[in-house]
Amino acid sequence: xxxxxxxxxxxxxxxxxxxxxxxxxxxxxxxxxxxxxxxxxxxxxxxxxxxxxxxxxxxxxxxxxxxxxxxxxxxxxxxxxxxxxxxxxxxxxxxxxxxxxxxxxxxxxxxxxxxxxxxxxxxxxxxxxxxxxxxxxxxxxxxxxxxxxxxxxxx
Length: 155
Known about the structure:
Blueprint: E1 3-6, E2 15-18, H1 34-53, H2 66-71, H3 89-95, H4 99-108, H5 111-143, H6 145-154
Antiparallel strand pairs: 1-2
Helix pairs in contact: 1-4
């Protein structure tokens, strides 16, 4: 005989039979199945490929300057709005070119997963750009090492 769970909503709340398979659980409380996770990952990969192909970090986010990149908070990236009137038609077309892929991705993945993947993408993109900046600075230093040592001798 299955046990009966009562909602904490009070007396008169409908009883729900609890089964080991979780069939009595409220919608959305069960983790995604393996197939749902695979669909989410495939949609994420397609969306991120579209972003990469168009030079975007996220839907509405395409920083190019070092200062912009450093200031981005991965938990709250400064994404432009599609209704932003200050954007030109060309800017809007570039920033929001992956709208269909984004909509499909968000329909296939849990909201918390979408936020998590976006945060990881921004952090990864920041790391790549910062590593590239460090590499360029390092190369510049070695290109001009004679100049550097000449300045050291003067002091």
